[in-house]
Amino acid sequence: MSPAPFDVARGSAFRPSDRTALAYVSRDGALALYNDYATHRSTLVHEPVLRGEDLEVRARWRGAAPGPRTVSVGGRVQGYGVFTFPYGPVAMGTAEAGAFDLVTYGERILELVPTVGYKDRGIEQAVVGRTVEDAALWVERRAGVFALAHVSAFLAAAEAAAGRSVPERELWRRALAQELQRIQAHLRLLARVADGASQNVGAAQVHALEEELLRAISRCFGHRWGFGALLPAHPSDRLDRNGRTELADRLGRISRGFNGLWETFLTSRTFIDRIQGTGTVPAAESVRWAAVGPTLRASSIAWDDRLRQPSVPYTDLFVPLATEANGDALARVLVRQEEIRASFLMLEQMLERWEGVGAGEVIPSPGIAPSRGIARVEAPNGDLVYDVTIADGRVASLQSRSPSEANWPVMALSLRGAVFTDFVFSLESFGSSFAETDG
Amino acid sequence: MIDPGSVVFLAAVAALFAAAPVAFVRRRAGYTLSLAGSLLVVTAATWALAVGPFTVVSWTGVLGSDVSLRLDALSAFFVLVAGIVWTATSFYSIGYDDEPSAGLAVSYALTLGSIAILITATDWLLFLAAWEAMTLAAYWMILEALGRPSRVYSAAFVFLAFGEASTLLVAVMIAATYSTTGTFAMTAITVAGPLASVIFVAAVVGFGLKMGVAPFHMSEWLPIAHSSAPSNASAVLSSTLTLAGVYGLFRVVTLLPTGPSWWGALLLVIGAVSALLGAIFASVSEHAKGLPAYSTIENNGLILVALGIALVARAQGLPTLATFALYAALFQAFAHAVTKAALFLFAGDVERTMRTYDLTRVRGGLKDADQLASGASVVAALSLAAAPPLAGFVSEWMILESLFQSYQFGQPTLEFIGLLSGAIVALAAGLVLVAMLKFIGFTALWKPTHSAGAVPARGLAAPIAALAGVVVALGVLAPWVLVFVTPTASQLLGTTAIAPIGGLLAIPTGWSIISTTPALSMFGILSPPAISIALAVGALPAIAYYAAGRRRALRRADAWSGGRAPPRTSETYTSFGYSTGMRIMLHSILGTREIRRSAGPLGTISEIRSPETYDVELEVLDVFKSFYDVLVRLVGGTAVALQRAIMPGRVGRYLAYILSMTLIVIVYVAIAFGPR
Amino acid sequence: MTSWIRHSAARGILTSRYPDRAATDEELPEAGRTPTAHPEELARLSDGERSLCPTGAIREQAVDQGRCIRCERCFAFGLRPLGSPAMNVGTREELRESAGLADRRPTSVAPFGTSLHVFMIDVGSCHACNAEVLALGTPYYDLNRLGLFFTNSPRHADVLVVVGVPTPEMVEPLRRTYEAMPGPKAVLAVGACAIDRGIFADGPRTGSSVGEIVPVDLYVAGCPPPPVAILEGVLALAGRGATPEERR
Fold this sequence. Notes:
The complex is a heterotrimer of chains A (439), B (676) and C (248).
Chain A: E1 7-10, E2 20-25, E3 31-36, E4 41-46, H1 52-59, E5 69-70, E6 76-78, E7 83-87, E8 99-104, E9 109-116, H2 123-126, H3 132-140, H4 147-162, E10 166-167, H5 168-196, H6 200-221, H7 241-267, H8 269-275, H9 283-288, H10 293-298, H11 305-308, H12 329-353, E11 361-362, E12 372-379, E13 382-391, E14 394-401, H13 403-414, H14 423-430, H15 434-438
Parallel strand pairs in A: 1-4
Antiparallel strand pairs in A: 2-3, 3-4, 5-9, 7-8, 8-9, 10-11, 12-13, 13-14
Chain B: H1 4-25, H2 27-51, E1 54-60, E2 66-71, H3 73-96, H4 103-120, H5 124-143, H6 152-181, H7 194-211, H8 221-228, H9 231-255, H10 261-283, H11 290-315, H12 319-354, H13 359-362, H14 366-369, H15 371-384, H16 391-404, H17 412-445, H18 461-476, H19 478-484, H20 486-493, E3 501-504, E4 507-515, E5 524-526, H21 528-551, H22 575-578, H23 580-585, H24 587-590, E6 593-597, E7 613-619, H25 623-646, H26 651-673
Helix pairs in contact in B: 1-2, 1-4, 2-3, 2-4, 3-4, 3-9, 3-12, 3-18, 3-20, 4-5, 4-9, 5-6, 6-7, 6-8, 7-9, 8-9, 8-11, 9-11, 9-12, 10-11, 10-17, 11-12, 11-16, 11-17, 12-15, 12-16, 12-18, 12-20, 15-17, 15-18, 16-17, 16-18
Chain C: H1 2-11, E1 34-36, H2 39-44, H3 47-52, E2 80-82, E3 89-90, H4 92-96, E4 116-122, H5 128-134, E5 148-150, E6 159-163, H6 168-180, E7 186-190, H7 192-196, H8 210-213, E8 218-220, H9 227-237, H10 244-247
Parallel strand pairs in C: 4-5, 4-6, 6-7, 7-8
Antiparallel strand pairs in C: 1-2, 3-8
């Protein structure tokens, strides 16, 4: 049985400190998860007493009301010559349906107000009453580029809710798939940041690596974005001996290519200058606004679900943890590139030990309530929480908190006082996805 | 024999002054009289330039010398320029003036009359009297804006203070002149050496104060005083009151002997710095009259640059360059006065239509409300931005052409100053483009989103359009204008000037402006008429296409706004936003700083967190204003200290002060005037 | 600088030879292909098997390519992936009949020249389609070599590429974007969501499909379609699409 990943507390017995951040709160407010960055422990609180700051954080996450909402963090600014520069929801720059209001008096961004929810497809309501397998088809189409993390988290939560054991090998498959997609997502982000800095050759090269990785994923799991790869009924993958050798070869080439490219990026003064000191988020703000993932780690908070909330197989693997101190776009980019290396390392470990993975079953840690399970996964953008209730083999309720959703407030903060041209670096270095946010 | 021109000019002056009492009774009649006077002024000046100088009237002055009004070539030129401007402003005023009292009309008439006397006086005392009359009348005119919500009292006071400082320095200059010539008549000053320099510097500072050039520009009195005055007054002040300053300086230069080179170098430096500062402040101004007022500083700076080149060239024995630069200066003065009047009149139209001078609140609006005036203002603004083939383009080309030739100066220091001034002037020219595009962009060109309620002012467009027509004509016919003002140039040079006119290849002789050097028969050439013809021919296909396109079916779509509804007013660029980049880039010159209120100071991103409203303001400082603020505080402090020291309320000390001062005066008089 | 040149030289030419050569297996993975079966095989399927399809794409005579999300459940009862990129591209009817452009010579839908500017709009996608569309700009596909370009404003666009299933909030923006484009213009709906709402067909907030909001000229099937299929779609709009002989 997996160890319980978090402590449990009830109501006011739990006292958060200023190193504690809200990680999840259920829609009815009856359940909350807190991360403590001092002790590196997570606490599940029943009937939590939310502080004012937590309420503010929660107000910026997805609520019950569907459709667009603004993620404002500061005051409303007014003054002589101040106007709003509307951007999106239709723009090639974001490449997604999401909008920003840049409040400015020209040149400088006084306030940035993201509007999310334009593409709220109502997935969480829609899956109620469907079988887990049908629901998974919806879940993986919530954010296609992070599909594997979402499906993993959803399935894990559903398994915890149902108390259903999972073959150990299946968990290894999930981890392998997730690490592949993490590298792909990070490469994509680096390419887009480089593109923003007009590093066209470098961006093209990284995009080429990303395409090679997509082809490797496709070769291995039958789909470029891994749709269906982890579903219980998926026919097959190519992880036999030959398939693993081929995957290892491809990964080796991509890894070597990336290392060489990254050296060149670091020697490009223009690239570093554009992102250094741009879009800074201090550690205190990261904790305050409950940022997650590489964004959090870029402001020196050492939290990674793979280490702090470990599940099989991460419990058996060496998981390098990357942190940076400055909290700027450069720090976020550095964390991501460290994680690319770390993921390559983990993939190598997994492929080496694949033969030795036991044929046994892993019983998930007990759900938080009868038929209700919570699962946390370190998605490419950070901590992803799924809270699933299963009744009669069908999904009775699905709630989640995605990492993109959690990072908009700090993204908005990071651009206050910046100039227009910093926008692209901040936007791309956080890498928040509107699709993942909107659900 | 009485010259027919003198009759015309006498009638003109009579009409200009008679307009004052008439305006007191019937305002429109007053303005109409001013209009008639202005037209007569133009006629007389044209006569004088075409036929020859004449004395209008002369009499024996209080000090026994002959005093007269005379239209020599120099006076005629300036009177001509002023007359053209006044014709437009007077016509404009008939429809514009809706002040509660007749004061504006009366002071307006007095200002015009004083300037006419000032420019034609042959006697320094009469000149000074007219100068002072002009200052007071203008002060009154500014006071007339009282009914409006503005800081007009302090603005008017600033104007008066600097006006009086100017008068004082002009008086010093006249006194110095008197000490060497022994007469108040405007006769040639033959003295050389330090006294000539004293006269020159006093003239530069005194007249410079009126022209508003740096560092006397104060950046205060011109913009504030002019922009709080009613628009017709602003046009008169900015175009012709500063022109009076230019005239004074030119007059002194004609009277003084060839001075040392540093005279010209001084003008070059002052002019270049003025041009740059004027351009910078114009580009960050948000006031529909403040912006053109700052542009006046820039243009007067350019006049000084051209005059400076001429003076250096004269001192260094380069008559060809001196001639060319003088023509440049004259043309620049002409072009600026006419163009700037058009812009100020248009600003008045903007205010009448949109009820504000604030560009950030105007946000276009005139495009639909008053198409003729908008089009005219575009022509005027493009001229100031030096777009071919307009007047400003020709003058700017001539000035830069003169600056290019500063390599002939023969002294490294002078050449360096010429080079540096050239670079600064070029930079200023670029910034003016920004300012002018901002001005017309946010008044005349931009299709506004909120002008539904705008009420177009009626009858204001015609004079603006007429001035724009003059601007075009000046530009297109520039070579002939130069030939026409040759008598003025001759008088300034003291020898017969030959207009820098020629031809090239297919362009007939007389159609081109040519600059030459002793070494090169053609250093640079510009043919405004040829350019105009080329532009017109080039535009024909476009016009034809446009005319044809009108008949084709057009599908109109909303402005693209990222898939959202068309932008609301609050979602469109403000004119402030347009030049914020400039504010940030030039923060060391502008002293830009951001102020946030009602949420505490904000330096880092974390300090404002609560969702309350806060105010932000990007403040721009004027270094010169700070300088004068310090000066005022120093003087004020000294005065208070003196008052406390001398008049503490104790009779004893007060008596001692009176006694000691009396003693000092007696001793001084005894030494100065006693028997030698 | 020189090291960038070195990197590029070391990688050599990566760009696809498509459409001059047939798409390779790498460029057209199984999941990008079209699951098909003979009509008689389909007719043999039981209702239970048919209902296993989450989008109801399996019809009596053919598999509706437009609806299919390539979940591969039907592979269990004998449907097989096959086809060329051109099979993913067609009108709604063609895709419904499992045909696509592969069976006919495409004709240009608008009086376009050979060079097109493409604007992409996302009306509610999972971002996978966006990524595949944008992948056309990367070295492996490089649409610029074919005279095709992405543009940042619909004002400059000839082709509107729509991805995603329209949410209520994106209906009006989609309409405005179409309005903002100058004529002649064409719309390419990319991916199952944009064709007929894909998996979201019975979702609570996804009631309308793209074709009901703006006129769609051509559809690219897939979930998401591979980049070569999207390329095929754009080329087809310019009248440069594949013929059956050329691309099979």
